[in-house]
Amino acid sequence: MSNDHFVRFENVDKSYDGKQLVVKGLNLDIEEGEFVTMLGPSGSGKTTCLMMLAGFETPTNGQIYLDNNVISDIPPHKRGIGMVFQNYALFPHMTVYENLAFPLRVRKIPKDEADKKVDKALSMVSLQGFEARMPMQLSGGQQQRVAVARSLVFDPKLVLMDEPLGALDKNLRESMQYEIKHIHENIGVTVVYVTHDQTEALTMSNRIAVFNDGKVQQLSSPDELYERPVNSFVAEFIGENNTFGGEVIDVSGDKCKVKLNSGIDIMANPIVAKSKGDKTTVSLRPERAIIDPERDMDNNHKGKIEEVIYHGDHTRLRVDLLGNKDFILKVPNSSNRMDIKEGKEIKIGWNSVDCRALDPK
Amino acid sequence: MSQEKILSSDGIPLEESLKKAERKNKLKAVLLVAPLFLFILIIYIFPIGDMLFRSVDDRMITKMLPKTFVAMEKWDGKDLPDEPVYEGLYEDLSLLKKNKTFGKIIARLNYEKSGFSSLIKKTIRKIDKLEEGNYKEQFIKIHKRWGQSEYLVALKNTAPKWSYAKYLKGVDLKFDEQRNIIQQDEDRRIYKTLWLRTINVAFWVTIFCFILAYPIAHLLATLPMKYSNLLMICVLLPFWTSLLVRTSSWMVLLQQQGPINDLIVWLGWAADDNRPELMYNVIGTFVAMTQILLPFMVLPLYSVMKTISPSLMRAGKSLGGTPLVSFIKIYFPLTIPGIGAGSLLVFILAIGYYITPALVGGASGSLISNNIAYHMKSSLDWAFASALGTMLLVGVLAIYWVYNKLVGIDNIKLG
Fold it and tell me: Is the pTM for the entire model greater than 0.80?
């Protein structure tokens, strides 16, 4: 079979107890040099996939290929995959230098060469001069960087990261996101990154695999994922989302007419629900709906403002629209902003192309 | 910076108002601690002090023969002493006879030198018949030993109020008549052997416990909760069983007609008429003590291993270390505080262990604590028992000190 992907999951199943599948028939290809994020809620199987790739779990069924070789029978220490753990897993009884030198020492790399590599790895995470510190003497962010440096110091082709930023506070997390991203861009290593934080995934990745229920729901670039989710789960999970339940009553070309549960018809973009009579959930991003639309839009409805929430750079409105009392609108805060008050009736318009008819919830 | 006193808002110096505010809490804390403090003082500190005191206290004889010892101060201890010494003896012994309190002195002097018993008894019997003056001659007439200077030297040697002779005895040394420290007679040297055996047994029991406990503790720390709880109960169950019951069950198992011997015979390792002795020797002591002290090794190890994140071993493997290398370089060093705590605990408990060696140890498996008990209950030489006890205590403190220097007591984790 043709097999020129760097990492390939082929029909991988995984069960821990013989009763439930945690990963179900997973197929996933990752190219060399990519930054792929496995994103999903807890229990969706993403960490299990990572552990199978690292070699700490064995697939119940199916094969995993690394560089065109089946790796199921290779023990973790021979796979040569770098890994960053959730709680850093720095060796507490070793200094930063010893932590970094560990993978080099077990590979019997001569000391002067090892010193150079350690130095290079530390400079990559701007931690020169910290060699003699113990991990406990470092802050959380510094420990994190040491963990990243340690996973890269032996020049692995593939680095796995298991929610590495989960324990950091928000600001630090954001700066670390950029730092990891830049390291990836600079050295061109393939990264498989696991997180449940969608902003993290959107910021860092070339491609994102959204996991749910042991399956990859969608594997695509961040913008694709956000703009064109292929099903309701992805639409709900990534970003904010307004939904309407209904049934397709007419399809014509790239548009369809959906009769909502409240009895009103709207125009939508048929993605999953493609034929007449299909039940559907219609998904619309808040920023794609506009108040008092000047241009002609093929959806134009009236709603009542239920709540106004001030957010600094923008204001969020909760609107009762077409039977959905939780319809969210984002209004940028500009000096000529409209007169927005609770209880006021407003006109809301959007294009049917942004309004995706997906599978019913 | 000026050294001005900081005042609280009502003008009282801050330090004072802080003290005032905390006085009540301090008082409460003291009251809460007081019962335990008194308890420890009464049943622990006081008895240990008393033990230390007894081991060096030799005042009983000093009080009983006051005049003799005063007279002896002028005697050089070479030839026979002069008249005043015998006069002092006469007065002291007469008084003892009158008060009928001479029993203790006979026992005490006989410890010092055998032969004193009959000497003192005979002297006291005849002392009323002595005439005034020229006591030296009359004493020698009562018993010829009063004319042998070695007895009088031995008597003089008991004069000091404090004596460390019991400690010398505890390491097979003694005073000769010239107060030089010399080796005990060959056939009476038993304590060095006993100490070495005690240390040897404690050491090997610690090693055996470590070898057995390490995998169990690791299993306990890594198994899923429902299995580890069961295993923990298996570890603790013997711990909750009476020590005597456990030791007696070992006696049942290890005896010559017992199940273990049956098994050995059945396996053909020994002939039926030549069953190995597993009890009443050092083997029995090793086996039973290892089993009994095992939980003291398992628990500290477990509590340390519980804190070691499993991801550390995974990290070691993912970085290229084989499982063995990862274990030696990562896991093992992190368990050292637990090993230290467990070993220290087991060693200290083993070195003073009493019941088990007393029941299954026999003669060749009995330890220093059995000897202490012997002197407490049978020979009634409490001073010597105290001296041995004190030496044991000092030994344990020394081990603790060495351990602190090597590993650091802060690194200990008991639970």
Answer: no
Q: Which of B309, B320, B329 sits opposite A89 (nearest CB)?
A: B309
Q: Find the closest chain A residue to B330 by CA distance.
A: A91
Spell out which residues of chain A touch residue B312, defining contact as CB-CB under 8 Å.
89, 91
* pLDDT tens sequence across B126-178: 888 888 878 888 888 888 888 888 888 888 888 788 888 888 888 888 877 77
CB-CB under 8 Å, A85 with B315:
yes
Interface contacts A/B by beta carbons within 8 Å: 67
On whether the A240-358 domain is CATH 2.60.120.260, my answer is no
Domain spanning B191-411, CATH class: mainly alpha
Q: How far is A147 from chain B (nearest CA, A)?
A: 10
Which residues of chain B does A160 touch, with a Cβ-Cβ cutoff of 8 Å? 318
Residue A1 pLDDT: 44
Please report the pLDDT score of residue A27 as a whole number: 86
- Can you read off the two tokens belonging to residue A220? 């695509």
Arithmetic mean of pLDDT, B349-362: 86
Q: What is the DSSP letter of A155?
A: -
CATH architecture for the domain at A7-232:
3-Layer(aba) Sandwich (3.40)
Tokens of residue B410, six digits: 């802060």
Element (H, E) at B299: helix B282-306
Domain ranges of chain B: 59-161, 191-411
Residues of chain B contacting A80 with CB distance shorter than 8 Å: 320
Q: Cβ separation of A76 and B317 shorter than 8 Å? A: yes
pLDDT digits (tens, 9 = 90+) for A128-153: 888 888 999 888 888 988 998 999 89
Confidence check: pLDDT of A301 > 90? no
How many angstroms separate the CA of residue B308 from the nearest CA in chain A? 10
Domain ranges of chain A: 7-232, 240-358
Instruction: Give the C-alpha separation, B174 to B188, whole Å.
Output: 11
Q: What is the pLDDT of residues B49-92, one digit of tens each?
A: 888 888 888 888 888 888 888 888 888 777 788 888 888 888 88
Closest residue to A107, CB basis, from B309, B311, B320: B320
Percent of residues in chain B assigned helix, strand, coil, to nearest 5: 75, 0, 25
Token duo for residue A307: 């709540």
A112-121, A317-326, B140-149, B166-175 — which one is most confidently predicted on average? A112-121
- Preferred mutation among A83, A117, A158, A161 to probe B, highest tally of B CBs within 10 A: A83
